[in-house]
Specification:
3 helices, alpha+beta, 7-stranded mixed sheet, 233 residues, 18% helix
């Protein structure tokens, strides 16, 4: 019996060549199926938000201005010649004028020290112990513990404190022309870390380990450039 001839299969359609822009798996999906671009956007917004908070915090800290004492508002200034007492008898009356607080104990979150050398008409004047300390009652953020000339700045928050706030509590006037009751144009000279300064020394913002020298009248022959603080100061 003769075999029937086989019908040839129809030709396969020719496919157009694929574009080789990028493998399908490597191309990010848009829309709800693939969230990669939205994750990037969300992450970027989070970073910007944190940066904004930090900038705001530091801008707020930096916005606090130092307090400059108006000595015409400080009551019961000492008027006699040095040495001057520590001023504790009128300390409570002077707190408002110097913008300091009566604290029950030392606050050490912000804790720095400076050293003061004071001269009047060529003689060294002792910085007394107990400035800013009312025994058995309170202590302020700027004070002295002994007669070495070391100033203690101890506060619950980091903020600028000035030399005028120490002198105001002490009851000793300090300006570009006066030390205590001694006044005269061109009579007040002052230095920080051995370098001559201009302007009002009471406006000096206190920073860690400053050596401050102030002279009314004849300056000393040698201006101290530094001070050897005790360990931990």
């Amino acid at each position: 019996m003769a075999k029937k001839p086989r019908t040839p299969a129809p030709p396969r359609p020719v496919q157009a060549p694929r574009r080789r822009d990028a493998p399908a798996a490597s191309r990010p999906k848009l829309g709800g199926g693939g969230g990669l671009p939205w994750a990037w956007i969300a992450g970027g917004l989070a970073v910007l938000a944190v940066a904004g908070v930090l900038i705001g915090v530091f801008a707020f800290r930096g916005s606090e201005k130092p307090f400059f004492v108006d000595f015409s508002q400080v009551p019961n200034l000492q008027t006699g010649p040095p040495p001057w007492n520590n001023g504790v008898a009128h300390l409570q009356d002077r707190l408002k004028a110097v913008n300091l607080d009566p604290l029950a104990a030392e606050a050490l979150a912000f804790h720095i020290h400076q050293h003061l050398d004071l001269y009047v008409n060529g003689k060294h004047v002792t910085l007394p112990a107990g400035i800013g300390i009312y025994p058995g009652a309170f202590i302020t953020q700027v004070h002295t513990h002994d007669t070495r000339g070391v100033i203690h700045v101890e506060s619950a928050q980091q903020k600028p404190y000035t030399l005028g706030q120490l002198f105001g509590q002490w009851g000793v006037k300090l300006s570009s022309t006066c030390v205590g009751s001694y006044c005269g144009p061109g009579k007040v000279h002052w230095w920080v870390n051995g370098k001559a300064q201009q302007g009002d020394p009471s406006h000096l913002v206190l920073e860690a380990h400053q050596e401050i020298a102030i002279a009314y009248g004849t300056p000393p022959k040698t201006i101290p450039p530094s001070f050897e603080f005790e360990p931990g100061e």
